[in-house]
Amino acid sequence: DVGSGDIGIAGSSTVFPLSVAVIAQWQDEGGPQYSIDSIGSGGGFERFCVEGASDISNASRAIKESEVESCGGIGRTPIEIRVGSDALTAVVSKGNTFASSLTLEQLATAFSLPAGSTWADVDPAFPPHPLASYSPGADSGTFDYFNEVVFDEAEPSPILSSGANIVGEDDNITVRGVADDGCAEGDTTTTCAIGFFGFAFFQANAGDLTAVAVGGVAPGADTVNDGSYPISRPLFMYTDAGIVADKPQVGEFILYYLQNVNSLIGEVGYFPAPDAQLQGAADAIAAALGL
Fold it and tell me: Final residue of a domain: which of 194, 225, 256?
């Protein structure tokens, strides 16, 4: 549990680097103690809505109705705070010269094939390199959103019965697994890997990875903002008015976050939320603080 003077944050591995950047600046300005855990959006809502053991829940998907009900069971009413947008990004290694643009259907195939498959099974036009795929775990909002868009919310997700390497919440395993796949043009004995995560992890490793265009549209600020990139998504924090009333430092932190996030979000690798949404969230938190 979080101490009365502290701030406890848990949830999405996607929102984690953004929150860490805001916290680092806030700490430089004398902010109070905090804890932050990267445990996935689902794990974050479990801690926030079932255990009541966190003050803020980070999420890369909207809260589910069942989670709202769990929150209600412990007297919490989640306040949704949009903090930015992300382009969920599929990546291949620099050695992969044939899969830099895929359709949603090809992505679905790549992440539903059994172990031992080749890229020729994704598309007969592709060379028959062995295929390795990397996915976050089912507790991840990134997993949920990929499944929603690419597999039309299939339950259970075909990823779970495929040959995919399920890496949990450590996106760095995907970075290394894909970047170091050894994929070499002309040598179809070499494995060519594919994985997916938030755009920030691609941006931080762009020297080793190629971002896959989806349907010919590459992820980036312009394509996220104009809606043409098909797997962009909002990023959220959740809290509760009662928490903010009991622990004003939580509300003060969220107000600081909303006032400063757009100056930090680009360097982390995400995209600003509309000003009107940031202001609406700030108004709700200010009201909970009695300002």
Answer: 225
pLDDT band at 291 (very low <50, low <70, confident <90, very high): confident
Residue 2, pLDDT score: 58
Are 123 and 218 members of one domain? yes
Nearest by Cα to 196 from 231, 225, 157, 221: 231
Which of helix, strand or coil describes residue 57?
Answer: strand
Reported pTM: 0.81
Question: Do 45 and 154 sit in the same domain of this protein?
Answer: no
3-state secondary structure 192-228: EEEEEECHHHHHHCCCCEEECEECCECCCHHHHHCCC
In-domain check, residue 185: yes
Measured between alpha carbons, how far is 241 from 106 in angstroms, rounded to an integer? Answer: 44
Compute, in degrees rounded to 10, the torsion defined by CA atoms 213, 217, 218, 221: -150
Summarised one tens digit per residue, pLDDT across range 92-131 is 999 999 999 999 999 999 999 999 999 999 999 999 999 9
